[in-house]
Design brief:
Layout: H1 5-12, E1 18-23, H2 28-39, E2 43-49, H3 51-60, E3 69-72, H4 76-88, E4 94-97, H5 102-110, E5 123-130, E6 137-140, H6 150-166, E7 173-176, H7 188-201, E8 209-210, H8 216-220, H9 222-227, E9 241-243, H10 247-260, E10 263-270, E11 276-277, H11 285-302
Parallel strand pairs: 1-2, 1-4, 2-3, 4-11, 6-9, 7-8, 7-9
Antiparallel strand pairs: 5-6, 5-10
Helix pairs in contact: 1-11, 2-11, 4-5
């Protein structure tokens, strides 16, 4: 079982070399990440976008791109559609967002003709390595689905569990989070959490253990579970997957961890035909490289 991004890197380097396509690759952090991914035998890349800008940024930051294929498309929207079509047509294993706004990037993913949509619910998964935590944490959804209903939450769990399995977590513990750990009819998040737990017990959600509702402290911290006398629960501060009731709680938690904790993280969009790397334009090199690593591991499992 992988407990860190170093573990994931060790795993992916034993896999076959993956091919990545980057939409609008004229970004220093992206170029640095794809360079490192190739040097570490994780993935080779096709850089789609304005070739002059890509080469100028590479020269400015002293990043070698001479051994990458560059597809010269000046218009950002056209470049995005060109890039996603290459993945759709099987010319690459993974699709990555470069210096382009999320709305434009997602339109390409969802395009009916050349996109990567399936009949599955699309959801976003963040994988965190947190100093002091003895396992990787899988957070969803913090960036894509604003207000998931019960069925959508079940689909998010299924998507996230697949990612956890790919990372070597055989039977991940899933905590549907709420403000409290008891069911309160006036708090819909707790009602949904109870329903998801029953769906798991009835075999409608498989490959994992679901226990909710749980407050964050009981899901994450064994000491808190012991102090609160909840050691009879299926999850006692050892959750692998944190399911958020809405995008607000998820996004706030994500940004709190990124800006206030000693962490490493990677992000992917799931429910697509091929792994999609959806990171923020402000994310640094390491997060982008971790995301490529995560996507490569998922791609290996999908082959």
């Amino acid at each position: 079982m992988s407990k860190s991004f170093d573990d994931l890197l060790a795993t992916v380097t034993s896999c076959s070399l993956k091919k990545l396509v980057v939409a609008n690759a004229a970004d220093d952090a992206v170029l640095e990440a794809v360079r490192a991914a190739k040097d570490r035998n994780i993935a080779d890349s096709i850089l789609c976008g304005d070739e002059d800008k890509i080469k100028a940024i590479a020269a400015e930051y002293k990043i070698s791109v001479d051994d990458f294929e560059i597809v010269d498309v000046k218009d950002p929207i056209e470049a995005t559609m060109t890039a996603v079509k290459m993945v759709h047509d099987g010319k690459a294993d993974m699709y990555m967002k470069g210096l382009v706004d999320t709305k434009t990037f997602l339109k390409s993913v969802l395009d009916k003709e050349v996109g990567l949509r399936t009949d599955k619910t699309l959801s976003h998964v963040c994988v965190f390595e947190i100093k002091g935590c003895d396992r990787l944490l899988f957070l969803s959804d913090v960036a894509f689905i604003p207000y998931p209903d019960l069925e959508t939450k079940a689909q998010i769990i299924k998507n996230t569990v697949e990612i956890a399995h790919a990372c070597g977590v055989e039977n991940p513990k899933v905590a549907p989070l709420a403000a409290v750990e008891v069911v309160n009819p006036k708090m819909p998040a707790t009602v949904d959490a109870e329903a998801l737990t029953k769906m798991n017990e009835e075999g409608k959600i498989t490959g994992c253990i679901v226990d909710g509702p749980l407050s964050f402290d009981l899901a994450y911290d064994p000491v808190a579970a012991r102090h609160k006398g909840t050691e009879d629960r299926k999850i006692v501060g050892d959750a692998d997957v944190l399911l958020f009731p809405d995008i607000h709680s998820g996004n706030i938690t994500y940004k709190t961890l990124v800006h206030c904790a000693d962490i490493k993280n990677g992000n992917v969009l799931t429910g697509t035909k091929k792994p999609v790397i959806l990171t923020s334009r402000s994310d640094e090199f390491e997060t982008k490289l971790n995301s490529i690593t995560l996507a490569a591991i998922i791609a290996e499992k999908m082959n």
